[in-house]
Amino acid sequence: MPHCPECQQEASAADSRCPLDRNFFVLSCCPRCQAEVFPKERFCAVCGSDLEAAPVRLAAPLKAASVPARVTATLLDGLALLVAYEVWLSLGWSGGLPAVVLLAVACWGLLPIRAGQTLGQHVMGQVVLTEDRRELDLKASLIRMLAAACSWAFLGPLLALFRADGATIAEAWTRTRTWSLQPDRKKPLAGTRP
Ligand SMILES: [Zn+2]
Ligand SMILES: [Zn+2]
Q1: Which ligand is closest in space to the CA of residue 7?
Q2: Does residue 182 come out as left (phi exceeding 0), alpha (psi in the -120 to 50 range) or beta?
């Protein structure tokens, strides 16, 4: 059963985050046979493995965000940045490239830290996490942003959006993913017992 790592509350099927503390729900899996284990279990019920050696933890229902949904989120962020830039100029601060870069870094580099969201990601229900569904810290988020900026600048949008197994090239480099918070009802949760 997916549960909150903080308060142990069991997840409802439609939610990705604990309503109390906003932590992502996790599933604990046996490191040996991958069977789902329950929060306080010491030994795997299937293979008997000792579970004290850090069971693999996966966040509950997330799937990779589709390309159109990601493009929409990026366009929304672009609009938000345009508005922010107008506000910036109206405050009498000097504009130009440094201001644009600063706003872009704040939006795409800083907002996604610790499972935060940009405006576009919030509207589209997306979150950026690592491949194994852990939250990004400042360094990981900035590296990811730089990798994405480079892929767009040097490869072009079509190649930058090309995806091998659900990850764009920048995401494959940085071992991150853009996840959709909408549960995939067609597939059982990863790791659940059949
Ligand atoms: Zn909780
Ligand atoms: Zn096991």
Answers
A1: 1
A2: beta
d(CA 29, CA 56): 5
Residue ranges of domains in the chain: 1-60, 63-180
CB under 5 Å of ion ligand 2: residues: 30, 32-33, 35, 44, 46-47, 49
Give me ligand 1 centre to Cα 12, in Å. Answer: 12
pLDDT tens figures, 34-49: 888 877 788 888 998 8
3-state helix, strand, coil in the chain (%, to 5): 40, 15, 45
Give the ligand whose atoms come closest to the C-alpha of residue 2: 1
Tens digits of per-residue pLDDT, 82-131? 999 999 999 999 989 999 999 999 999 999 987 788 999 999 989 898 88
The CA–CA distances, whole Å, from 108 to 87, 96, 98, 152 equal: 18, 18, 15, 14
